[in-house]
Amino acid sequence: MKLERSPLARPFPDMPPVAGVALRVARAGYKDWGRCDLTYVELAEGTAVAGVFTRNRCCSTEVELGREQVRAGRARGLVVNAGNSNAFTGHRGRAAVEQIMGQVAAHLGCDEREVFVSSTGVIGVPLPRDKARAGVAAALEASECSWEDAAATIGTTDTFPKGALTRAVIGDTTVTLAAIIKGSGMIAPDMATMLGYVFTDAAVEPAFLQALLSAANERTFSCITVDSDTSTSDTVLAFATGQAGNAPLASFGDAGADAFAAALDDICRQLAHLVVRDGEGARKFIEVAVTGAASNDSARRIGLAIANSPLVKTAIAGEDANWGRVVMAVGKAGEPADRDRLSIGFGGHWAARDGLPLADYDEGPVAEHLRGDEVRIDVDLGLGDGRATVWTCDLTHQYIAINADYRS
Amino acid sequence: MKLERSPLARPFPDMPPVAGVALRVARAGYKDWGRCDLTYVELAEGTAVAGVFTRNRCCSTEVELGREQVRAGRARGLVVNAGNSNAFTGHRGRAAVEQIMGQVAAHLGCDEREVFVSSTGVIGVPLPRDKARAGVAAALEASECSWEDAAATIGTTDTFPKGALTRAVIGDTTVTLAAIIKGSGMIAPDMATMLGYVFTDAAVEPAFLQALLSAANERTFSCITVDSDTSTSDTVLAFATGQAGNAPLASFGDAGADAFAAALDDICRQLAHLVVRDGEGARKFIEVAVTGAASNDSARRIGLAIANSPLVKTAIAGEDANWGRVVMAVGKAGEPADRDRLSIGFGGHWAARDGLPLADYDEGPVAEHLRGDEVRIDVDLGLGDGRATVWTCDLTHQYIAINADYRS
Predict the structure, then answer these.
(1) Same-domain check for residues B326 and B182
(2) Residue from A89, A193, A225, A291 carrying the catalytic annotation
(3) Using one digit for the tens of pLDDT, what is the confidence trace for A204-254?
């Protein structure tokens, strides 16, 4: 089926090259489609890497290997296959990944474990080794391409290419962070996410980069959901080439570490939002702001219970200020909640406070807010200082059309 | 909106009266509709009661009171309001429930705490006391009605009335169990369910009745899901009038206790299946049979992860044997699972065994099975002896239409 561009799409940002990062794409032909579907990223010697991966127990070989590889902290290459997730393919799938790692390592003269592989697409079909070999060979020889080309090539059911850019100042050096991501369905937290890649020319020690990425993940990718389904292949990798020449960051004690951490948070949040904006069938971008919870973790779990509730998501799709469904979702989260202290609102307008519907509740401004394409649900538990913000999209006919009407 | 009768509906069974149970309905007018919406059940003196209730933290006053009332173990009356759930209505909602309890208790000359009240419908609007008073008064004076009338009157978005009947032999006495239930959306386990009422003429001690009902609940209502959303008002009550004259059951040591327990399980399973058959937008009844799990509890959680997965439910709606989505759902459950021992099938035909797609997989019989309106998903974890069966329905355009296209 031809998917229309999400009405919530953002234009691709103007993204300059990042020193030490070379992008190339090729056509492996994993599916019968007339587009590039293999992305190869070459990284300068000395590039540090960190990663977060799906917590799905039936994860792909790529995720298993990636988890081991990031421990060594160094990367020289990245290959992303689109159209075949290679998940649930046993030893045949693993052999295909190892073949790609070997092929790129031989080209670069590096250790195989410095070559990262991700795959996305249908589950259960081993990645065809001949197509992979030819595709990698073509990519190794291809001219460099743009960020937008790379972002489009890693996509599958995505309706628009997704990129983000930010900068930070470390000492007297300005470093750049550029990132691309793909994902629109099978998106739920618990690690959370699709395939996302952050590239920076900053010099950052691998262990510190990992700590920063894990922390950013908790506040960004782990706070989004499209359909509560957690992919077997979710991966976010951060690569730091060190080409900017700053004094390497190794801890928060280093000058500029806070700025870099903030920039990493920012770019991860941008990426996470882009995925929600391309959520299957999405017509509205929904922010759920939870305050007054027993803890931040509790607030996040309550926010996700709301964001994952099909009844809440369909109510927003219908522009219905059905705050009763929000109450239901708060209650089902299993977290500390006191019905008589609970307040619910939309876009800054309270509908119920301290467990009671507002006597003078005026649905007018709320209805107007819900007609927009960015909706905020406000929930205050009235219990403590815990707070969290999570993001999701509405649940529409188009989600059903994408996932039921057409055979995958 | 006018809801069409579910294609999975069952005809209402032929249900005889149960000694000690008198059914009456009336029109309270909780909504602007031309139908009865208040059900009153009078129970003989000495009736034992047991109950299971929602675990939603934002539960209704009716649930809070009901939990207290079942501890005393005795019931004389039941009032069910349809069209207004009275949930999240604070002290005004509580006063309305207490008014109903007092009104019925005065009529029967019993303790107020022997009168049970349930309400279902919109959240956040206090039950109007004047309408409740007039409705109860009318019901107290009404002629007795049939099980089907009562089942229709407790319904809200239900598209067909739901009843079930079974019998058991205790000693030389045949006892009858008759039950009605309502529910079609906001259905998820964790207690689980809607409003359901089981009536029997058997004599059963309240504590034993509670133990049996709680056990049956774990295997029936807690094993169904429509949309993963847990209502604030879910309630199942079992009433035993003792009019059949059997020696009262007090433990499994009593003759006939096993037969009664089996009958209670059976009628609860019938009710649970009826709710799934009326799941909002349901076109297919789905049974998920999980074996080989680390434990029965683990099997149930894995089954529910599958049954709650929108991607699995839309795949079944699309008659797509997308077992990769089942793998994903198994993995996201967070339970012990080993990708390389996992087997997945549909209707008794394996698609993948021991972590690998079947080399000689023939999609023909699977496709035929999926075209039917009863679908079974088979999952074997290959780890242990844990097993569970859960039930759900598919996720269709009609679910979106019911919940998004029309304001509630």
Answers:
(1) no
(2) A193
(3) 999 999 899 888 888 888 777 766 666 666 777 888 999 999 999 999 999
A86-90, A182-186, B137-141, B192-196: least confident range: B192-196
Q: Which residues, 6 or more positions from B259, have their beta carbon under 8 angstroms from its beta carbon?
A: B168, B169, B170
HSE of A389, CA atoms in CB hemisphere, 13 A = 9
**CB-count exposure of residue A164 (10 Å: 0-12, 13-18, 19+):** buried
Please check whether residues A69 and A204 belong to one and the same domain: yes
Mind giving me the DSSP string for B189-255? -TT--SEEEEEE-S-B-HHHHHHHHHHHHHHTGGGB-SSSPPPSS-EEEEEE--TT-PPPB-STTST
Question: Which one of B157, B176, B193, B291 is the catalytic residue?
Answer: B193
Per the CB < 8 A criterion, the answer to whether B374 and A287 are in contact is no
**CATH number, residue B298:** 3.10.20.340
pLDDT at B190: 35
pLDDT score recorded for residue B402: 74
Residue A1 lies in a domain: no
Among A89, A315, A330, whose Cβ lies nearest the Cβ of B404? A315
Active site residue A193: yes
E strand residue ranges, A31-108: 38-43, 48-53, 77-84
A302 assigned to some structural domain: yes
Q: Is B182 annotated as a binding residue?
A: yes
Phi first, then psi: what are they for A137, rounded to 5°?
A: -60, -40
- Which residues are registered as beta bridge partners of A239? A49, A199
Across A63-77, A174-188, A276-290, B64-78, least confident range: A174-188
Largest CA distance in chain A: 72
Q: Do B317 and A400 touch (CB under 8 A)?
A: yes
Contact A228 B309 (CB under 8 A): yes
Q: Which of B231, B280, B308, B339 to mutate to test the interface with A (most CBs of A within 10 A)?
A: B339
The reply to whether residue A335 touches residue B122, judged by beta carbons under 8 angstroms, is no
A403 with B318: Cβ contact below 8 A: yes
Residue B127 lies in a domain: yes
Regarding whether A364 and A292 lie in a shared domain, the answer is: yes
B156 appears as a binding residue in the annotation: yes
For residue A164, the enclosing domain spans 21-277
Minimal CA–CA distance to A154: which of A325, A40, A269? A40
Closest residue on chain B to A57 (Cα) = B331
Picking from B91, B194, B338, B400 by the largest number of A CB atoms within 10 A of its own CB, the best residue to mutate is: B400
B-chain CB neighbours of A394 within 8 Å are 404
Report the distance separating Cα B223 and Cα B297, nearest Å. Answer: 11
Q: Do A331 and B56 touch (CB under 8 A)?
A: yes
Q: Which chain A residues are within 8 Å of B327, Cβ to Cβ?
A: 58, 87-88, 123-124, 232
Mark whether B199 and B309 lie in a shared domain. no
Q: Which domain CATH number covers A233? A: 3.60.70.12
Please say if the pLDDT value at position B230 is more than 70.
no
Q: Are B327 and A355 an interchain contact pair (Cβ–Cβ within 8 Å)?
A: no
B193 among the known binding-site residues?
yes
